[in-house]
Amino acid sequence: MPPGIVRWGGWAGVVAAVLFVLASILILIAPPQRGSLNSFSDYLSEVILVVAFALTLVAIAGLHALQSGRYGRLGAAGSLITFIGYALIVVVAAVSTSVGGEALFAVRLIGALAVLIGSTLLGAMTLRARILPW
Q: Quick check: pTM over 0.90?
């Protein structure tokens, strides 16, 4: 595997974590109104979350590049399911930001379920392969 993909995935994960913390602080300071995006802080927090979720996709791709071939089919399936789940969340969050409000809430829930199942499988296979330290 090219080390560039793994390195970019690592940096994307770090930046995504910082953006998630920043969005959380912004949401605590100025809680969004339910159902609509009325203020600048609502849009800003949504855009930050969309970018953070997109960077999470890059981090998952980097993790898969690091481990591919070593964690087997279950690890690859977990990586794929997690990637698809986050991709659904990114698309729904971007559509919600552009349209305004909570569009496609059911699709977001399906994406969250895919992230939950895929991340559990990916984490278990990563620990089993002993590629990364505890």
A: no
